[in-house]
Fold this protein.
Amino acid sequence: MGVAHMMQLQRLCDSIAIFLEDDLDPRSFFQTKKIANRYNCEQLEEKCNQFALQRFIEIAQSDEFMDLDEKFISFLMESNETKAKEEGKCKMLLAWTKHDIDERKECFLSLVMKFQLTKMTLSYRRFLVENEPLLFESMQSIQSLTLSILDSHGDISSKDFNLTKNKQLVVFDQTSQRMHSIDVIDKTWTPMQTIDQAIIKNLYSAVMMEPYIYVICTNKLFYRLEYAESNAKWEQMANTNLQYACVVALDGFVYGIEYGGRPNIMERYDPSNNRWTRLTNKSLILYGESLVAADGKVFCIAGHSDQQHRATNQVEIYDPVTSTWSMDNRSLNEARYRASATVTEEGIYVMGGCNVNGTSTLTTVEFRSSVTKTWMMLKPMKNARFNFSSCVIDGKVYVIGGNGNSANIEEYDPEIKEWKIIETIQGKNIFPRATVAISI
């Protein structure tokens, strides 16, 4: 772009800008924005602006967010199109300000009063007033009044806001033929949108990638639903070549690998052009693998080999940057297949499944630390299960469905290192591999 701009090759500049637009994702956003600003690519700038509004939470959690300039931060905070709750915007504004408090304090004080404070929870507003010294400089004179107004609404405790909070589990129920969400805190169930008949008959797995839930069916059809819109309809997207697909979301793409067909192929779905792309084959030909995204890579964990007639404990890692597979030099402690895997900020969890010879169902759990890169055994689940779903909410791991005791929802708390049954599903027949966690 620099050379093309210097030589005034406008058509080449435009072509490069179009390529950068198509390649835009949370990882490339910051560099693309710098290029657009440096070379005055107005259309590319606008594309970056809209991307940041739609994907604010992902952008805000990057370290590079702290280096954004005051003008762009103001744009994000003031826009009514920013896809984030007021608490989320305020928390990230505070973090950005504290990164260089002397230079950014005035900007913070001018922006904070532009938030729609009534849309914040009372507990978070009280937390701010009680705990954020930055607010005192503009609100100290009304602190007592603010607290009295908040307290008049009842016994409101002070509570911080977490970007990962307000999440719920979503299941696909064959009995009612609709989705239901469950709040894991108060155990309340809420009916959601109905499920199309074409999906009910063939649903296999699901993945959440804001603002959509995507589902893959056994007839290779692929659908999505904008779940936050109560009147949203299922959209049929481009078909995949995968029939029994295990799927995971990473950096704005959906990655899928054949779970039941025993090949070694993986495909990637790009929502920007509604297209599936065949990726490099992995080394091991397995079925019943577990798929997770962590550290910017896709981990394909364990699985069953027809050639060896047994499960494996090996782990293959796909790097989207180099389009290559590599074997993890540290394997699981226990071979397994048809297990479930999920990831937290601390590392990867693999739970349950069938043992090496398929003669029994497992309760065992393993954890791979993102720091040490080693696998360690944790306390086992309460129920043995395979072919089930697992999700993370507020750092806790939830398992649901599958063969075994599919009615029990279990929770693992990493702080106390204990499993407990938090709910027993009644009157629902849920798809075992399709539970996802969404933000409400």
In short: Residues 2-151 form one domain. DSSP finds twelve helices and 26 strands in the chain. The CA atoms of residues 60 and 92 lie 7 Å apart.
